[in-house]
Amino acid sequence: MRQSKKTEAFLFRLSWAGVNKMNFTSMSISDIQQGLAQGAFSALEIAQESIDRVAQVDESVHAYLEFTAEAALKSAQAIDDAIAKNTFGELGPLAGVPVAFKDNMNMEGTHTTCSSHMLENYRSPYTATCVERVLEAGAIPLGKLNMDEFAFGSSTETSYFGPTYNPWDLERVPGGSSGGSAAAVAAGLATATLGSDTGGSIRQPASFCGVVGVKPTYGVVSRYGVVAFGSSLDQVGPFARSVEDAAIVMNALVRGGSDHRDCTSQSINTDFTANLNEGVSGMRIGIVPAFMEAEGLDAEVKERIEEAAKKLEAQGAELVEIELPNAQAAMSAYYVLGPCEAFSNLARFDSVRYGYCVEGCKDLNEQYELSRAGGFGVEARRRIMLGSYLLSSGVYDKYYYPAQQVRTLITQDYTYAYHKVDCILTPVSPRTAFKFGEINDPTSMYLSDMFTISINIAGNGGMSVPVGLGSKSGLPIGAQLICPAFRDENMFRVAAELERCYGAASVAPAFAKVGE
After folding, report:
1. Within 10 A of 370 (CB to CB), how many other CB atoms are there?
2. pLDDT in tens, 137-181
3. Helices (H), 66-112
4. Handedness of CA 331, 333, 339, 345 (dihedral sign)
């Protein structure tokens, strides 16, 4: 692939860096834990060299908003102490693994800004359950990651702190809203990260950055401590460079069962690594012809998805055409339900309880209006105004109630489809990563999630797995796998087979040899 001028300049700077260190974040979780157990390296070495790599590389990627070096070294020391006491085997499944978190996830003592001026100075007084479970599993926390403001966007361009750059081409977006989480893994700035997905915000950036991204079934992972966009749509999930690594992170996230602090949290007894080697022989894989003929789907994306389907068929899977007749209405329903829930969730940021505050106002009303106008960015204000309108008297019955009815129909469509198939294969995004500023129209930007939104509406699990590069663009393309609710192991099984066909994701070429 021809490198952009910005990427070439980055490579030139690295040629003078003179760094000759082991790149731990290019290793798999199993490699890291095996090396620690055998004494090949220490957890402190992992932590320090991961911190050094972020300091060296992230200036070009801007995946991180905050580094937690002290916490990383403290966690690493605890792991080394356990190794010295021969109790390493008692630590969790992520012991010694460098991780980072999307900046809408509270972690005590860190800023949780949601990439917004509104929360620029907010420090978390507690830790989100998803973060807590990853840390309890022994992970080394490297920091907090950039995102679209309050998760409103598909490119990470709406961040108040500036965009994140796609490691495959620094002139292109990494996707969004979890763009920082995807870019960090793609650039080797973390072994795994957490993101959140409301309408495709894990899967689309995973596709753009060439990594694995998982949106579990709604309710599998606790949302306690995660700043909400759409409470009935949001779900936390991992990014990683291999299906196995993503499955190991999922095991950590569900350890301990349901979370009593989140009424939507469900207790599941699943080992997500259990069936990764079973293959797909005998499985029925659903293909949606309407998706493959959708207007706006690039030829190179369609080519890769059709190729992936043929590879699965060659490995013994049965391809079954299915219909999702109401899926075309998912976009319309989402942009009613999403803004309504966002409007409700953002009401708390009023400059009185917390949030950005304009001082010297003549009264409370002026303070409230000016603070919210100044604290929120353009896209956040757009969704607040839209949600306010849609929930207003006389409009609610016209839009919000029908959107909920459509939601029921879409959910039923998926239920009927899973009578015929075990998993569904579709594109993730209609195109590969686009250049900064290339899409300025909000409606066109929203179409980036045209294949992912219906899964959030129905609550099913979905994931993106890399299936090669575009024949024209040379950029990563992801295939979306969709499973029945609480049968997430189905999509992991299929994803593992695709990974055997295409190989596990690697660090983006421009960053692959950095630090080695």
Report:
1. 17
2. 999 999 999 999 999 999 999 999 999 999 999 999 999 999 999
3. 69-84
4. negative
Which distant-in-sequence residues (6+ apart) come within 8 Å of 442 by Cβ?
379, 382
Q: Which residue has the tokens 């509270």?
A: 106
* 3-class secondary-structure state, position 228: coil
**Over the Cα atoms of the chain, what is R_g?**
22
267 in Cβ contact with 257 (< 8 Å): yes
Cα–Cα distances in Å, from 90 out to 40, 62, 86, 128? Answer: 19, 35, 9, 24
By annotation, the residues acting in catalysis are 102, 177, 201
Which tokens go with 144? 């907090």
Q: Which residues pair with 111 in a beta bridge?
A: 123
List Cα–Cα distances, 508 to 26, 28, 182, 433, 497, in angstroms: 10, 15, 11, 14, 22
Which has the closest alpha carbon to 203: 437, 488, 489, 455? 455
Angle between helices 378-390 and 396-417 (to 10 degrees): 100
The owner of tokens 């020391």 is 77
Q: CA nearest 463: which of 232, 263, 276?
A: 276
The count of C-alpha atoms lying within 13 angstroms of the C-alpha of 419, restricted to the half-sphere facing its C-beta, is 6
Contacts of residue 294, Cβ cutoff 8 Å, sequence gap at least 6: 430, 450, 451
Q: Which residues, at least 6 apart from 211, have a Cβ–Cβ distance to it below 8 Å? A: 182, 185, 186, 239, 240, 241, 466, 505
Tell me, what's the pLDDT at 2? 47
Contact between 451 and 470 (Cβ < 8 Å): no
pLDDT at 414 over 90: yes
Structure tokens at 433: 């990563």
